[in-house]
Structures are given as C-alpha cells and as structure tokens.
Recover the amino acids of this structure.
C-alpha cells in the first residue's frame, strides 16, 4: 500500500483541486453553482492527475529515463517495488474511471464535454508515452497550463452553468500558471539526469538560470488576475485575501535560487501547497 501511495505522488495532487475550486467559485459568483457536477469535475481531475503520475512512472522506466541517478522521489517501476504491468493496469484503470466521470458530465452538459474528456485522456497518455512524448520535447509546461488552467476551470464552470464564461477563462490563468510552476520545479531538479537521458524538457533547453526566472514569473503572474478583477469591479476587496500566501511565495523564490538536487523535492511540495492556498483565497475572494 505504501508503494502505491508513493506511485500516485500525493504531493502533486493539490494540483487537481485548485482549478476546480476556482471554476466552482466563478460559478457560485454567477449564480450557476451545481454541487454534483462540481464534485464530478473534481473526481475526474483527481483521476486524471493520478493517471498522469502513474503514466510517468511506467513510461519513464520503460524508456530508461529513470535510473539510479534519479534526483526526484522514488519511482516504483524503476525501483522494482511494483511490477510494470501492474502500474500500467492501474494507469488504465484510472483513465477508464475518468472516462465514466466524463460520460456523466456529458449527460449533464452536452457533447462538448465528451470531446474535452477524450482530449484530456489522450493528453494524459501522450505526456510521457507514445511516439512523441510531450514532456520529452519541451512542451510539458504548455500542456500543463492549458489543461490545468483554461480546460479545467472553464469546463468546471461549463458543467454547472451550461455555457462558456469569459470570466472563468480569465480566472483560469492563476491556477494554470501556478500548477505550471510545479512542473517547472520538477524539471529544474531533473536537468542533469534528463539531459543525460536525452529528455529535452523546457528546463534542459533553457538552462538553470532562465528556468528559475520562468518560475518566478509564473508565481508573480498569478497576482495579476485578482488585481484585474478588483479594477474591473467583478470582485471586491475580498480579493486582497490572496496577499495572505505572499510570504510563502517570497520564501519559495529565495529558496529556488540557492537549492539544487533532491532538496528541490521539498520546494516542489511547497510550490504545490502555495498553488492550493492561492486558489483557496482567490476562490474565497470570488465567493465573498
């Protein structure tokens, strides 16, 4: 059981909750909140996140990207803790369960959600698998932003309100940026081993200093949307609650500048926490 928990990479799972909270908060703000579709959206997002983590574990071991030199958390397939066939079966099981959630959401909101479900499942597989793995060609951050930002937030709103909302698209930017920052830290840590394995992530292409600059820009950029919502009148002074996790962001920026190797695992975990805390306070600002 401990090995399976390790395989799901629980420190990354807050990434699944933040966008759903924000999309639901916008729906509440616009008086279109609906509990069951919101819960289904969260379950679907969580299943997809676990599936991606299992897929990374399975495919990176098969392609010999993971090795004994790995700096990140232990991968169960490479370490032999769980047979590769079992990890693959668990990944496919999570994707099948996510597909069932999308069937329900399609019944609620129409065929557009079905197409989103198909694309999300294909993206989960293509991230580290297939003939052109997204993560190995410098496109991982782009896809993470798209699917954890606009896709997750706007679709969470859509399954509750039955329509597209420009405000939900704008609100999707902070969670998209912050979850992308989690990926940036992951790839920053792995620059030496990824480069050796021929995995051309964005961090490998940019180098350490430019990757750190990108990380700082992603964290700081999230604060533009609360300011925009206050200036436009869409939200009130409660948006100032997003200032509360600001000391955590400052500490992360200081930390990433001087940290290398395995200690970046804790930086990644704290970035995930900051992402979730920001999303919570951002959502409260919308609710109030």
């Amino acid at each position: 059981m401990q090995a399976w928990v390790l395989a799901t990479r629980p420190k990354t799972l807050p990434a699944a909750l933040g966008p759903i909270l924000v999309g639901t908060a916008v729906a509440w703000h616009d008086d279109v909140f609906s509990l069951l579709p919101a819960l289904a959206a969260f379950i679907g997002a969580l299943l997809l996140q676990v599936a991606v983590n299992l897929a990374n574990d399975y495919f990176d071991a098969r392609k010999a990207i993971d090795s004994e030199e790995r700096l990140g958390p232990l991968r169960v397939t490479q370490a032999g803790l769980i047979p590769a066939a079992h990890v693959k079966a668990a990944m496919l099981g999570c994707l099948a369960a996510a597909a069932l959630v999308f069937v329900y959401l399609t019944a609620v909101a129409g065929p557009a959600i079905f197409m989103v479900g198909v694309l999300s499942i294909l993206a989960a597989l293509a991230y580290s698998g297939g003939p052109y793995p997204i993560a190995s060609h410098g496109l991982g951050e782009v896809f993470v932003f798209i699917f954890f930002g606009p896709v997750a937030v706007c679709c969470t709103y859509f399954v509750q309100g039955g329509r597209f909302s420009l405000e939900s698209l704008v609100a999707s930017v902070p969670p998209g940026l912050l979850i992308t920052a989690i990926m940036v830290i992951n790839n920053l840590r792995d620059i030496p081993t990824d480069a050796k394995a021929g995995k051309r992530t964005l961090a490998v292409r940019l180098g350490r200093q430019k990757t750190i600059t990108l990380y700082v820009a992603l964290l700081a950029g999230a604060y533009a949307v609360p300011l925009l919502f206050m200036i436009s009148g869409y939200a009130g002074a409660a948006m100032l609650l997003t200032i509360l996790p600001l000391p955590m962001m400052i500490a992360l920026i200081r930390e990433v500048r001087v940290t290398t190797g395995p200690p970046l695992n804790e930086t990644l975990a704290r970035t995930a926490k900051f992402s979730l805390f920001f999303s919570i306070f951002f959502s409260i600002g919308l609710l109030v």
About this structure: Residues 12 and 272 are 6 Å apart (CA to CA). The domain at 2-287 is CATH 1.10.600 (Farnesyl Diphosphate Synthase). The chain has one domain: 2-287. The mean pLDDT is 91.
